Amino acid sequence: MLFFGLESAHGAFGSVRDPRISMLEKFFDAYACPAPHYSADYIRAADTHNLDYRLLPAISLVESTCGVYERSNNRWGWNSGKKAFASIPSGIYFITSQLAHGIYYRNKKTPAKLLMYNPVPQYSVQVQRLMRQIDPDEGPLPVEGLTLAR
Fold first, then answer.
1. Is residue 55 situated within a structural domain?
2. Per residue in 54-96, pLDDT tens?
3. Measured between alpha carbons, how far is 25 from 141 in angstroms, rounded to an integer?
4. Are the beta carbons of 92 and 41 closer than 8 angstroms?
5. What is the Cα–Cα distance from 96 to 58, expressed in whole angstroms?
6. What residue numbers bound the domain in which 39 lies?
7. Is 143 helix (H, G, I), strand (E, B) or coil?
8. SS3 71
9. Does residue 37 surpass a pLDDT of 70?
10. What is the spatial distance between Cα 43 and Cα 104, in angstroms, rounded to a whole number?
């Protein structure tokens, strides 16, 4: 699905809103996340780096209840919550870039990225469950990387 910009695409028949914005807004509202939700930033960053747009919003719910308990504009627990960002959007773009291209994350599927982000297996399961709540039609998440070596 191609959208020019995120808020709307202008053409002969008016404008079309990217449906992912509504899905994220509904998700954030369901969990009483504080506004603004930065939905367009999450989607733009994910599209720029070819990352699942649901990943960072789901992480933000687990790590800080979407910002209720954030510190220094860090809603995602990056660097154990010690990393400060100049703004929420700058954090979104930085972490999305890292999850797509960073040495520990590149060339991995979502479950493996999550195990690198937080090695507790239940964390990955929880984030993936939230991702499916955002958009169950986005496609199934592979289960690779969820086993622990003994």
1. yes
2. 999 999 999 999 999 999 999 999 999 999 999 999 999 999 9
3. 22
4. yes
5. 13
6. 18-137
7. coil
8. strand
9. yes
10. 22
